[in-house]
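User: For documentation purposes, I need each entry recorded in a consistent format: the amino acid sequence on its own, followed directly by the corresponding C-alpha cells. There are two entries in this batch. Please keep commentary to a minimum and don't merge the entries.

Assistant: Recorded as requested. Entry 1:
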Amino acid sequence: MKKIAIIGIVGVPANYGGFETLVENIIGENASEDVEYTVFCSSKIYEEHRESYKGAKLKHIGLDANGIQSTLYDIMATLRTSNKYDIALVLGVSGCLFLPFFRLWFRNKLIVNIDGLEHKRGKWGTFAKWFLKQSEAMALRFADVIIADNKGIQDYVTDTYHKPSALIAYGGDHVKRQVPDEKTAEILKQYGVEKGNYAISVCRIEPENNCHVILEAFAKTDRKLVYIGNWEKNEYGKNLKRRYSGFKNINIHTPEYDLDTLYALRSNAAMYIHGHSAGGTNPSLVEAMFFGKPILAFDVVYNRATTDGKAYYFKDCKQLEELLKRQGLDGEVMKEVAQRKYTWKRIASQYEDLYN
C-alpha cells in the first residue's frame, strides 16, 4: 500500500478552493484500495478536528492556511512529514522555498503541483511575486515529479525550466446533483431570474478575473447577469459593486456555497461567463462545462486549452458585448469535452499512476 501525505491545502471536508476540491475528490470512493492518504489541515478553520474523513487520515496544524501564516503553515506540514510516507504530494508552491531543507531528511518521492503561476497574479506586490517565483524554482529543482494542470502551464515549465511535467487537470463532475423542481423554482425566484434568460459568472472578485470588463459589457446590453463573488473583499470589488448595482439587468450577489443553489443557477442559465486571465485549469470553468451551456471565456492560452478551443472567447469589453448579442451559441460541445477529460475518477487514477 502506498502512503501519501498531502501538503498545502486548508483541509477537508473541502470548503475553500480548487486544491481542496481536488483532494476531496481523489480520496474516498475515487481512491483505490492500494492508496492511503494523510491530509494536513488547518485547525484554525475546522471547529471539529476529525481524525479521518472519507478514508483519509487527518493531521491538524494550529496555523491559518491562508494569508500571512500560509507559508509557515506549509513548512510545518513538511516538518511533520517523515519517510513513513512513500510520497509527499505538495499542492502549490508557497512553502517550496523550504524544500532544500525538507530534502535533507525526506528521501522518498516528492510530487509538486505548481498550480497557476502565482507569481504572475496581479494581486501580489513586488516582494510576494519574487518570493513565489523563487519558491516555484525550488519546486522545479527538488521535486521528483512536477504536475501541470493545464497545457499552457506545461509549456511554461518546458520553456522556462527545460523540464518535463505531468499534465493532470481538475475534475468537475462533482457538480452533478438532483434538485427538486419546486426548490429550483424558489431559487430562481430568489435571484429574480427565469430559466434560460440570464448569464451567470462565479469567481473571486479580482482584477485578473476581468470583473470590470464583464460588468461594463453587460451594462451596455439588456442581457441579464447573475454575478456571484466576494465583492466586499477589496476596494476593487467594492467600487464595482457601487458602480453597477443600479443596473436592472445586473444582479450582484455575495458568495454562494449552497450546492443546490449553485446547481439550480448554473443548470438553468443561458450561458456562463469566465473572465479569469491567470492560473491554469480554473476549477470553476471545468465545473461550468458539465452543464453544456455556451461558455464565453477570456482569451488566454489556459482557457483555450481547458475548453479544447471550442468555447467563445473575448479579449475586451467590445468583443464580449458582441458575443452577448449573438444568437444560437452552442454549449453541448463543452459537455462532451468535460465528460471526456474532467471526471474525478479519471483524475484520481492519473494521480495514482504517478505514485506507482
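Entry 2:
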Amino acid sequence: MRRFADQARTLVRALALGLLLPGAVHADGVPKLDERQAIVDSQAVIGHTPADLTLRDRQGRLVRLSDYRGKPLLVSFVYTGCFTACPIQTRSLHEAVQGMDRMLGPRQFQVVSIGFNQPFDSPLAMKAFAAQNRIDYPNWEFLAPDAKQVPALTRDFGFRYVETPAGFDHMVSVSVLDGQGRIHAQLYGEQLRTEMLGKPLRELILSAPLTGGPMSVDEIIGRVRVLCTVYDPDTGQYRYNWRLLFEFIGGSAFFLSAGFYLWRERRLQRRQREDAAMQTVPEATRG
C-alpha cells in the first residue's frame, strides 16, 4: 500500500512539473507517448535487475552491463539526433555529477548513456554526441546496443518512447542502480539537480555492504563524507555540516574509549583469575 502511495505521488509530481517529455505539442493523428503509463512502467521496474546484455562503447569495444557493478550506476537513454531534451538533460546530468563528486570524492559511482535509436546511434555517433556536449568524465561511458536488443533493454529499465515524424516522443529520465545492478530509483526531468542525485546515491553508499572484511581507509572516508554533508538550497550544492562532523568524531572517540576500557577490564580480570589459579595449585597437589 505504501509503495502504491509513493508511486502515485511520483506520478502527480512528474506530471505537474512537466518532468517527463520535451514538451512538444503533437497534431491529431501523430503518435504520442502516454505519460501516465510511462511513469507507472518506469516505477514498476524498481527493485528489478536488467538483463546482462553486451553493448559497445565509444571505441567499439564490447562491454557488459555487469562490468559496471560494484558501485552505484546512473543510466540515461538518449538518441544522437535529438537537439533539445537529450543534450539539455546530458549537460544537466554532467553538472549534477560534478556536484556529487565534490561531495563524495571521485570514482564513487559510474554513469552510462545508452543510444536507443539504432542503428543510427552507433559507437561513432555516441562518441560525437559526448564530444558535442563536452562530457569528459572518467567514469562516464556512452554505449550502443544492437538494434535487436533495444526493445528488451528499454523495457528492463522502464524507459518508454514512441517514434514520430519529427524523431521520438520519449521519457527524460535517469535510472539509479545499486552495486548489484538492481534499479533503486528513477529520476525525471531535463534539469537534474545535485540534490536529486544526492538522495539515492547517499542511500546506496551508506547501505552498501562491506566487502572483504574490515573497512578500508577510503571506505571510511567516503562514508564519513556522506554522513557529514547536507544540501544547501542557496548554492544548489552539498556542503559539510561541521557540527555533524564534530559529533561523529566525538561519538567515535567515546565508543573507542569505552571499548578500550572494557578490553582492559576483561584483561585485568583474566589475569587475576590466572593468578588465583596458580596460587591454589600447590595446595591441591600436596600429598
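Summary note for entry 2:
The CA atoms of residues 5 and 248 lie 35 Å apart.
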